[in-house]
Amino acid sequence: MATSALYQSIELLSQEKGINPAIVVSAVEEAIALATRKYYKTQENMRGELNKETGEITAYIYKTVVADEDQIEDPVNQITLAEANELAPGVEVGSEIRIYRDTSPLGRIAAQLAKQIIFQKVREAERDTVFQEYAHREKEVLNATVKRVEGQDVIFDIGKAEARCPRREQSRLEQFSVGERMRVVLLKVDRAAKGPQVIVSRAAPELVQNLFQSEVPEIYDNTVVIKAIAREAGERTKIAVQSRDKDVDPVGACVGMKGMRVQSIIRELRGEKIDIIEYSDEITTFAEKALQPAKVSRVSITDLGEKQLEVIVDDTQLSLAIGKKGQNVRLAAKLLGWKIDIKSEEEKRQEVEQQMQALAGAPTTPIEQVTELGESIIQKLVTAGITTVEALADMTPEQLEEIPGIGEKTLEKISVAVRHYFGQFEEAEAAPVTEGAEPAAEDAAEQQAGEATAAEGTEEQSEGAAEEAAPVEAADTQDSDEEIAAEVAATEEETGEKQAAEENDA
Question: Is the C-alpha dihedral spanning 175, 181, 182, 188 positive or negative?
């Protein structure tokens, strides 16, 4: 059957847009009907009709036939049986009667209106087709071509549709050129978007997984399995792999001979660093490997329910384990799915000491009580996290010098102030022994009673006691002087005998 030139054009448009020709035909018929109704300024039901063979488009109104005027509820869209028979003899009650309208008077305005309606219907049909094509393909890797750059977004041609890659889904290392071919990950299909509704990514971990499947045959045939991936696009990626064959080294298979396989993936990612880690079911062992290249001293589980780990590293390895801006530990935590708390050996030692002091009930004194330090020094110490006198006393001079604003003079002032502060407590403890403590209530009573009894004695007894005491003291002094003189004489005599013996020997 021969078709008109109009219908052939509709078929070509349908193939180009990837939609059904019937949808375009329906759009054309609806557009003509709407333009005709607007031209005649009527609210009657109107339809359009396209003749495929001749290409002629007609418009008509249709009314429902009722028996008589008593049954008419909608005069605009209903007609009595008698009136219908005059227009088309033989019609029956309940059927529809067509009344054609002349479309030749339609002018340029009606044609523009029809064009807009057709384009709108075609766009809606095209978006429905795209949604049905890609909605179920999320996380799939597609081959795409850079079509254009709109601001910070990149528009890709993915075959049957255009896809948008927003700035947050791009790697900072990449620059896009029109016509460049690359692989992208389909994130989602946004039906409500004004522009391209397919959203793709170059930063998703699935892209790295797809590249490894393409470059490593052992991953493609499932001998080596990718267990987890953590990625920060343009910076670093950590990938955990496990071998199902004991004779196959999973890390070596991914790296390849002289690193050829992984280097190919790095080139595709524009120089992004990749850490390949062997997976382990033991979480502590897996954590040690995930924090590479840092060397871990020990790993312990602090909270199994909340999935929290405590990792202790050597003091020299702390910055390497944390990584630049915390990247290494952040990626490791994402790879494990656990929270990681990294501490150095020194930090752990101090923490244990503090816990022991807390258990022993050791008192703590706010640093503000050391008034000799001055407000400025106290402020610097508090800013550095030193809030108690005990913590200040435990710090070495080297540690104090690391605090901003503390030099040699300030260090000396701190040392003196701390010594004076603790010296006050030592004097207070020694005071009861040297000066004597206040007597208790009972001792005070006994002392008063003794004083009363002494007062009753005579003055003669007091004088006699003094006379008796004086000779004793003098005798003691005399005996002491005589003993010292005897010792000196004996020493001189021994010295003289030694010198005489030496002269005789000579």
Answer: positive
